[in-house]
Design brief:
single chain, alpha+beta, N-terminal domain of TfIIb, GMP Synthetase, Chain A, domain 3, three-stranded antiparallel sheet, three-stranded mixed sheet, 6 strands, elongated
């Protein structure tokens, strides 16, 4: 896997993925940025959310669960001093569907956290990562 990050101006950068997609990253105004895009550490958190949500939906679909929506809320804490790495990340899954089996949802969350989501597993080597979920029953 390859990527290219190119400096645009001030503290703005554009990242280009090997698959041909681009994303703008920028810093906050107090660091010379213009707030034109997500911060790099936000990208890491978004990457984790996308990876784990993808796995959770795929696992639940394979378990033949009637899932209609899934979103993941992530909250992270960072160190106070440089490097301001993540110290804690909590992932809250909200899964919506019809007659969802709570044990299967719990298993899907466990499997993505411990076996499938590369980003979660990589970050968990140095960050305290926790998970929980809720199920919203759809009529």
């Amino acid at each position: 896997m390859k990527a290219v990050v190119k400096w645009l101006d001030n503290m703005s950068f554009v990242g280009e993925s090997e698959s041909g997609h681009s994303v703008v990253m920028d810093g906050p105004p107090d660091s010379g940025g213009r707030n034109l895009g997500v911060r790099p550490m936000e990208m890491v958190l978004l990457g984790m959310g996308g990876c784990t949500a993808f796995d959770t939906v795929l696992i639940l679909q394979r378990q033949r669960q009637d899932i209609t929506d899934c979103h993941v809320e992530l909250s992270a804490e960072r160190a106070d001093t440089v490097p301001k790495v993540f110290t804690r990340i909590h992932v809250h899954y909200i899964v919506k569907g019809k007659a969802l089996d709570e044990k299967k949802v719990a298993r899907a969350v466990e499997m993505t956290a411990e076996k499938y989501c590369s980003v979660s597993i990589m970050l968990a080597k140095s960050v305290d990562v926790t998970h929980d979920f809720e199920i919203i029953e759809e009529d």
